Amino acid sequence: MFDLTGKVAVVTGASRGLGREDALTLARLGADVVITDILLEDDPDLRTTAEGANSVLAQVAAAQGWVYANATAEEIRRMGRRSTAIKMDVTDRDQIREVFARVKELFGRIDILVNNAATLDHTAQIPNQDYRLWDRDIAVNLTGSFNCTKEVWPYMVEQQWGRIVFMSSVAGTLGGFGQASYSATKAGVIGLARTAALEGGRYNITANAVVPGIILSEAGQAAAQSNPMYERFKNRTVFKRFGEPSHIAATVAFLCTEEAGYITGAAIEVAGGIPLFTA
Ligand SMILES: NC(=O)c1ccc[n+]([C@@H]2O[C@H](COP(=O)([O-])OP(=O)(O)OC[C@H]3O[C@@H](n4cnc5c(N)ncnc54)[C@H](O)[C@@H]3O)[C@@H](O)[C@H]2O)c1
For ligand 1, which residues put their CB under 6 angstroms from it? Predict the structure, then answer.
């Protein structure tokens, strides 16, 4: 069971954090995996790209060396799978089209898309939400997921098989204090996943959303250390602890298997029971 041998996956925002863990887990199940991200460690323009991304987190990641795209591809190749890291900004539709065409040429097919890329560092209450960051969050988290879904669709239709996973958040299902833009995008991807599920059924394409609580990726750890509200979030889980990237990756990978072929249009919480305390 749970064998992805022969499948080709593209994961967006996979140079660190949950996307990286998703890529490794898909590979452990047998898939060939293409790591894509706006940041690659061998990019000579890494610092400029990070600054251009209009994201504090991108600059921290570049400065701290949290960019493991090529290293992750290498780790996957050492497992005996095919893998490569390709720069892809999910807001750049021409680039996405070119990257998917290249993946098809290099790997022969595209079976799995994990829409993981996102910006997580815009926190301010509504009067202080920054219009530029609002626009950025919609462009990356919501429109970016749509761009990749639209561009991968013809490949999956041609194969009559596909798996698309969207990354939502409990901020999308419950709201997020100080997270208007992020929360709106994470609610939006659930609508997008359900629409893709309705339209994909006739082609054997499933589309689902994973709804994490607080997970200790590099970004999650940094937020947990700097934001006192995270202690409250932790105490609202039934376990009184945060989640691990492997909890998300296992769910994402399962949704990509043949065995998960009757699960579509679902929004699956991996949140340590946080919502139970808000009911
Ligand atoms: N960590 C958590 O607690 C948590 C909770 C709920 C949901 N999520 C979701 O899980 C996903 C991963 O979260 P994470 O904690 O690993 O965050 P992260 O910031 O570490 O990872 C996001 C990745 O997306 C990339 N990225 C940003 N803008 C991009 C763009 N325009 N094009 C391509 N790549 C881009 C970044 O470079 C980074 O590698 C996100 O969708 C996030 O919203 C995370």
Answer: 12-13, 15-19, 37-39, 53, 57-58, 89-91, 116-120, 140, 144, 167, 169, 212, 214-215, 217-220
Q: What is the pLDDT of residues 171-203, one digit of tens each?
A: 999 999 999 999 999 999 999 999 999 999 999
Q: Which single residue is written with the structure tokens 């490569």?
A: 84
Between the alpha carbon of residue 176 and those of residues 118, 155, 205, the distances in Å are: 16, 36, 31
Residue 87 lies in a domain: yes
Encoded amino acid at 67, one letter? V
- Which band of pLDDT confidence, cut at 50, 70 and 90, is reported for residue 50? confident
Total domains, the chain: 1
255 occurs within a structural domain: yes
Containing structural domain, residue 41: 8-216+244-267
Is residue 182 part of the annotated active site? The answer reads yes
**3 part of a folded domain:** no
Instruction: From the candidates 68, 131, 182, 203, give the one annotated as an active-site residue.
Output: 182
Mean pLDDT of the chain: 96
Looking at residue 206, which CATH number applies to its domain?
3.40.50.720
Asked if 187 contacts 145 with a C-beta cutoff of 8 angstroms, the reply is no
Record the pTM. Answer: 0.98
